[in-house]
Amino acid sequence: MKTEGYKVKDYGQAVKRYVQTMDLKDDAALIAEYRRRHSEPEAWKEVLDGIRAVGILDMQLFILGTRLVMIVETPLDFDWDAAMARLATLPRQQEWEDYMAIFQQCKEGATSDEKWQMMEQMFYLYE
Questions:
Q1: Mean pLDDT of the chain
Q2: Residue 104: how many CA atoms within 13 Å on its side-chain side?
Q3: By C-alpha distance, which of 84, 92, 90 is closest to 113?
Q4: What is the pTM of this model?
Q5: Which residues pair with 60 in a beta bridge?
């Protein structure tokens, strides 16, 4: 566990953040393989390029047991629905989603936007 925190990128502009969650199947071997397939040498370049092409500045996954949390940072004018619709049409994107589905608690053939559930911010450090 990393208790010293994670560095936040400086984009030189204001950004907005989306936070989503999903559960993996409760199987230690599957979770280990899911982690491996998301490692730098294993992640598909076409999928990473597609994520950037729709305007996403950064995407991070965090895990605790079977629970995943994804943090996505974008420019302020980012349109989530339009970007996800475009992402679903990009090369190898659905192939990647199908490839990952064996690890995830989701329906067969689901897109990324169908798998990941948007979280609601319920607290911030009030000013």
A1: 95
A2: 23
A3: 84
A4: 0.91
A5: 71
Q: Distance between CA atoms of 86 and 98, rounded to whole angstroms? A: 17
**pLDDT tens-place string over residues 67-106:** 999 999 999 999 999 999 999 999 999 999 999 999 999 9
User: Taking a C-beta distance cutoff of 8 angstroms, is the pair 21, 70 a contact?
Assistant: yes
Cα-Cα-Cα-Cα torsion 41, 46, 47, 52, nearest 10 degrees, comes to 110
Check if the beta carbon of residue 61 is closer than 8 Å to that of residue 68. yes
Which residue is it, tokens 């199947």?
A: 25
Q: Which amino acid is at 73?
A: E
Beta strands in the chain (DSSP E): 15-23, 58-64, 67-75, 117-118
Pick from 75, 88, 78: which is nearest to 114 by CA? Answer: 88
Nearest to 17 by CA among 64, 59, 68: 59
Write the pLDDT tens digit of every residue in 6-22. Answer: 889 999 999 999 999 99
Query: Residue 123: left if φ>0, alpha if ψ -120 to 50, beta else—which one?
Result: beta
